[in-house]
UniProtKB/TrEMBL annotation:
It comes from the Eukaryota. Residues 50-68 have a biased composition (Polar residues). Residues 354-369 have a biased composition (Gly residues). One of its GO terms (cellular component) is catalytic complex. PANTHER family: HSC70-INTERACTING PROTEIN (PTHR45883). Residues 50-128, 354-385 are annotated as: Disordered. TPR repeats lie at residues 120-153, 188-221. This is STI1 domain-containing protein. Residues 76-100 have a biased composition (Acidic residues). InterPro entries: Hip_N (IPR034649), STI1/HOP_DP (IPR041243), STI1_HS-bd (IPR006636), TPR-like_helical_dom_sf (IPR011990), TPR_rpt (IPR019734). Keywords: Coiled coil, Repeat, TPR repeat. Residues 247-274 form a coiled coil.
Length: 385
C-alpha cells in the first residue's frame, strides 16, 4: 500500500506529532476534538489538561477556554472531596430525654417572703435526704416544691439538675442548670452538672467548656475527671472545625484568583482590541508575541501587583490612551511593575517589550509615542560645540 502523503505533508505530520509530545494539552483544543476522539477510540489515555501561567496556547481564545475548564475541574475536585466526619468515641452517650413541662412551672418574677424562704429551705433539706437515699423521683418532687416557693434560688435549680443527671435526663438537667446560671453566673455546680449532661448527649465541645468553667470557679476532683474524659473528643472536633475553616478560606482564595485572572484577561483583550483599532490594525512590532504577554498577565506575582486599585486604574488609563503614560512616569508603583514586567520578558528581546511597553508604553525616561510630550534632550538637541 502506497503512502497517501507527499514529503511536505509527512514533514508537517511529524512536526504535529512532536508538538503533541511536547505539549499534550493541545489535544484538548476544540479544533482537534476529532483527533482526540480517534485516539480515545484506540484506547489511548489522553492526559488531563493542565493550566498555568507559563503554558502556551494555540489560539487567542484559548485562555478563556482554559480558565473555564479549570473552574469546572476545581469545582469537580471540591465536590468529590466532601468533608469527612470526625471519628469520636461515643461510649457513654445516651438518647436525649423529653422535657416535662409540668415540673417546670414557677413564677420567675416572684419575690419570696421570709416565711416562703424558710419553707423552701425545709423542702430542700427533705429533698437532699431523699437524694441520699436514692429516692430520685421523690427528690425531684421536693425540689420542685422548693423552687415554687423560692424561684430566685440558683442552688435549687442546680440541685434539681443533679437529680435529673441521676435519672439520665440530660436535657432536663441542662434546662435547670441554665436557669441556675441565669440567676448566678458563678455557680460552679451548675456548670459542672450541665457539662456532664452535655457529655451524655455527645456534645463534647460544650461539655469541655462548662467543665472548664466549673473548675475555674471551684476546683472539684469529679469535675476534673469528667473533663479528662471529654477532652480527646473535644480536641478532635476543634481541629476538625479549624480544617473546615481553612479549606473554606482556600476555596474562597482560589475563587478570588480565578476572578482576578478573568478580569485581567478581559482587560488584556480590551486593550488589545483598542490598540488594534487605534493603530489601524497594524501588525505588532517585530519580536512581540501577544500570547506570551497574555500569559505574563496571569503570572501570580504580576496579578498580585494588579490587585492594587491605584495600579489597576493607572494601567487602565494608559491602555485607553498610551499617551497618558507621561502622567505616571514618576509614580514609583507603576515604575516597579514596569521593571518587573521587563525583567520577566527581557526588555527589548523576543517576546519582550520592543521599543517600550506593548500597546505604546514607552521605556522609563521616554515619552509616549504621539503624546506630544518632549523627549529627553540628546547631544544633537543641545548642540554641543
Amino acid at each position: 500500500m502506497s503512502c497517501p502523503f507527499n514529503e511536505e505533508q509527512l514533514t508537517q505530520l511529524k512536526a504535529f506529532v512532536e508538538l503533541c509530545k511536547a505539549t499534550p494539552q493541545i489535544l484538548h483544543h476544540p479544533k482537534l476534538v476529532f483527533f482526540k476522539d480517534y485516539l480515545a477510540s484506540l484506547g489511548v489515555s489522553i492526559p488531563t489538561p493542565t493550566f498555568g501561567s507559563q503554558s502556551s496556547a494555540p489560539s487567542g481564545d484559548s485562555n478563556t477556554s482554559n480558565i473555564n475548564a479549570e473552574e469546572k475541574m476545581v469545582s469537580s475536585e471540591e465536590e468529590s472531596e466532601p468533608e469527612s466526619d470526625v471519628e469520636l468515641d461515643m461510649e457513654g452517650v445516651i438518647e436525649p430525654d423529653t422535657l416535662d413541662n409540668e415540673q417546670n412551672k414557677f413564677d420567675s418574677t416572684k419575690e419570696p417572703t421570709d416565711e416562703e424562704r424558710d419553707q423552701s429551705d425545709e423542702k430542700r433539706s427533705e429533698a437532699m435526704r431523699a437524694f441520699s437515699e436514692q429516692q430520685f423521683d421523690e427528690a425531684i418532687k421536693l425540689y420542685t416544691e422548693a423552687i415554687q416557693l423560692n424561684p430566685q434560688s440558683a442552688l435549687l435549680f442546680a440541685k434539681r439538675g443533679q437529680v435529673y443527671l441521676k435519672l439520665n435526663k440530660p436535657n432536663a438537667c441542662i434546662r435547670d442548670c441554665t436557669r441556675a446560671l441565669e440567676l448566678n453566673c458563678d455557680s460552679a455546680a451548675a456548670y459542672k452538672f450541665r457539662g456532664r449532661a452535655y457529655r451524655l448527649l455527645g456534645k463534647f465541645e460544650e461539655a469541655s467548656h462548662d467543665l472548664c468553667e466549673s473548675l475555674k470557679i471551684d476546683y472539684d476532683d469529679q469535675a476534673n475527671e469528667w473533663l479528662s474524659e471529654v477532652k480527646p473528643n473535644a480536641e478532635k472536633l476543634r481541629q476538625h472545625k479549624l480544617s473546615v475553616h481553612r479549606k473554606k478560606e482556600e476555596k474562597e482564595h482560589r475563587a478570588k484568583l480565578r476572578r482576578a485572572r478573568k478580569a485581567a484577561e478581559a482587560r488584556a483583550n480590551a486593550a488589545k482590541a483598542q490598540a488594534g483599532a487605534g493603530m489601524g490594525a497594524r501588525p505588532p512590532p517585530a519580536g512581540f508575541d501577544p500570547q506570551n504577554f497574555s500569559n505574563l498577565l496571569f503570572d501570580p506575582e504580576i496579578m498580585s501587583a494588579f490587585q492594587d486599585p491605584e495600579l489597576a486604574a493607572a494601567f487602565q488609563d494608559v491602555s485607553a490612551n498610551p499617551a497618558n503614560f507621561v502622567k505616571y512616569q514618576n509614580n514609583p508603583k507603576v515604575a516597579a511593575v514596569i521593571e518587573k514586567l521587563q525583567a520577566k520578558l527581557g526588555k527589548g528581546g523576543a517576546g519582550g517589550f520592543p521599543g517600550g511597553f506593548p500597546g505604546g508604553f514607552p521605556d522609563f525616561g521616554g515619552a509616549a509615542p504621539g503624546s506630544g510630550a518632549p523627549k529627553p534632550p540628546t547631544d544633537d538637541d543641545v548642540g554641543l560645540d
